[in-house]
Structures
1.
Amino acid sequence: MTATPKTKTIPPAQGVGTPVIWIDGQWCDRGTAMVSVYDHGLLYGDGVFEGIRVYGGKIFRLEEHLDRLYDSAKAIWLSVPMEKKELASITREALRRSGIAEAYIRHLITRGVGDLGLDPRKCLKPSLIIIVDTIKLWPEQVYETGLNVITAGTPIPHRESLSPRVKSLNYLPHIMAKVEGINAGADEVLMLDSAGAVAEGSGQNVFAVKNGRISTPPPHAGILKGVTRGVVIELATSAGYPVDQTVLNRYDLYTADEAFFTGTASEIVGIRQLDGRVIGTGQSGPVTRDLRSRFQALVRS
Ligand code: PMP
């Protein structure tokens, strides 16, 4: 695959910018970006992805996200048709072309175009897509009030089936859990693993705070190792909060002083209620707020 841009006129950035999509060497916009209906990413969810934030024109933790993308691909026998360095430089170019300062970048690698059978050998080359757009998950006030969360009946996939460490295009269990939450009128859901331990949100990692100690499930328990999770552990540790990566049960969250989710899109957001139990004082707690303001300072630094 060549990274050479084909001649395509990109509308000039207007104020907040314009979404830009790069597909296998072609520059497109929202109207012209197309994939084949024979792409196994569409037919079978056979592929991997990443989601990355841009704050004030700077890409946050690009290297870590690309490392996870390449690891996800490796875990499903998908070889990325490009060196990380080259992908990083096309990503920066896509961002530059978009003119979006507060952007969200989505990388997708699909198995590519094959036939209607499962056999990935029919897919001659993987497809690589970069989307630069914007994203906003929660209104600002939610960061004050915290989220009303319920536990979903749908568990995360078993780690020896499709490892949750792989950020794959198969998000159905997480989507079903999300729908359970929507149907119940909740803001978000907590997902358990197949043994009933606390795993993660539909698109976030989860933390509890009790007596000044912070705890969160370990990645080997079968959760996505969130980049934001890692940043929060770094920030908490340097701020003097002890952090334990340990198995949590719902009891630990019900009885926590505070609980919060972390993720690229949601950043750090408090949980005010879980399964009808009020957590702490029933709003975003002081440790959550402190970490959020440290996080804001870091991404804007
Ligand atoms: N868990 C799941 C299932 C997710 O989809 C995400 C979002 N990528 C996360 C956790 C949080 O990861 P990150 O902080 O890297 O966005």
Note: The domain at 7-133 is CATH 3.30.470.10 (D-amino Acid Aminotransferase; Chain A, domain 1).
2.
Amino acid sequence: MNPYADLISKSASFLKEQKIVHNPKAAVILGSGLGDFTDYIEDAKSIDYGDIPGFPTVSVVGHKGSLFSGKVQGVETIAFAGRFHFYEGYPLTKTIVPVLLAKELGCELLVVSNAAGSVNYRFRVGDLMLIDDIMHLGRKLSVSNKQETFRYTNEEMVDRVERIAADSEIAVRKGCYLYMTGPTYETKAEIRAFRLIGVDTVGMSTAPELLEAKRLGMETIGISLVTNMATGVSKTTLDHSEIKEAAEMRKEDFARLVAAIVHQECG
Ligand code: HPA
């Protein structure tokens, strides 16, 4: 049992009582630099995490730590701007709190986005990649105490989203996302090895959320925004400002894509 489970039901009741959320069907977790998606939510209401009883607060550059609620293409949707990274010292149980809240509120679909480094030489900064597989190098990410096994697959969803992207004339890649705990970036040797085993993008989030959402029976799709080429792929050093630049390039496409996914899947 996740220690946050009771707190989450408190958060959900509060949000419903205060009429901040209205039976949302879809939830979106926004990666670094992708917070502007919230501009595309109609009649948006927002509340800081700190003002939601039972909900934890966040602290990272580029994250607001707010929950947004409103309609996206006519579909009641919630969006989390700000998340809980394991590398910041939060326990895994906390990194998945947004997923628990989305499930508690009745969401059927979870879109999880992230800023990621590209291990794949063919990708470019600004590329959007649909996550069609995950690697987490054997780390136990499921927070269930039960001895349950389950498999993360979402091939059919990825196929559908590929078609949605094509219909919306938005170029997307498809590939495997590797979850690293961070906070250090990878070494050149690691990235070389990761390429050999089939990794396309690498980042420090998303896998725990996707796995938990799948375990809870939600439909999921993960989307990486390539904000930098991974260590050794490009010669420059990595820093947080690159995230903003890459997000500027694709934030509109990202928002259009997510809106189209929500509309097609839940509308
Ligand atoms: N490595 C790990 N996490 C990241 C990267 C990276 O290159 N870029 C953005 N998040």
Note: The first strand starts at residue 26 and ends at 30.
